[in-house]
Amino acid sequence: FEKLCSISLSHINVYACLVCGKYFQGRGLKSHAYIHSVQLSHHVFLNLHTLKFYCLPDNYEIIDSSLEDITYVLKPTFTAQHIAHLDKQAKLSRAYDGTTYLPGIVGLNNIKANDYANAVLQALSNVPPLRNYFLEEENYRHIQRPPGDIMFLLVQRFGELMRKLWNPRNFKAHVSPHEMLQAVVLCSKKNFQITKQGDGVEFLSWFLNALHAALGGTKRKKKSEW
Question: Which of 85, 107, 150, 204 is most deeply buried (CB count within 10 A of its CB)?
């Protein structure tokens, strides 16, 4: 889900409580995370931006290698070597809940009426050239966009979703597309929504053209980074 404080609805300096899973802002005295830790005795929090762990209310950083699985689920990374072998090594992975799954062949949560978009996103995640490009964030990290341009958000969210779909260390055999779909709603000016059924073919056409333009493409052939 979107990384917003459950109380202030701010996206700035947000921490996840690792006991209940709720998001809270800040960790200083009188912050929402601090108050939550005192009232409910929930003490371990993760900064969703820096991916560092803290103990509250004592307010010290927790450094423990056993927590690395959590940060990897939130931000999985892929090397060029790993990407090159994705289609050569079809190996089942075991999720934290005990279920087995094949990376890249996992479910997307149907939040309300977004199954039309889920089908398109899952299909695109299994197109090797497209998948390989977005699995490696360095491919598009340094693309310059005009100030105030929101369309590049689609590129960022699609890359994040692609890496989560292909993550061999997921906690569950399904992934939430919530942040990806929020970017779709925003960038399409609500032409495609989470709460209303849409046409899959129309969404596919719009989405690919929007990605192409966000990556610096034009209507001429071979003019985008992807």
Answer: 204
- Spatial CA neighbour of 128 closest among 93, 166, 168, 77: 166
Output the CATH code of domain 77-214.
3.90.70.10
For 56-87, write each residue's pLDDT tens digit.
Answer: 999 999 999 889 888 888 889 999 999 988 88
The architecture (CATH level 2) of 12-69 comes to 2-Layer Sandwich (3.30)
Cα–chain center distance at 67: 19
Distance CA 13, CA 44 (A): 16
DSSP-derived secondary structure for 33-99:
HHHHHHHH---EEEETTT--EEETTTTEEE--GGGHHHHHHHS----HHHHHTTTT----EE-TTS-
156 sits in which H/E element:
helix 152-165
The model's pTM: 0.81
For 12-30, the pLDDT digits (tens) are 999 999 999 899 999 999 9
Contact between 95 and 173 (Cβ < 8 Å): yes
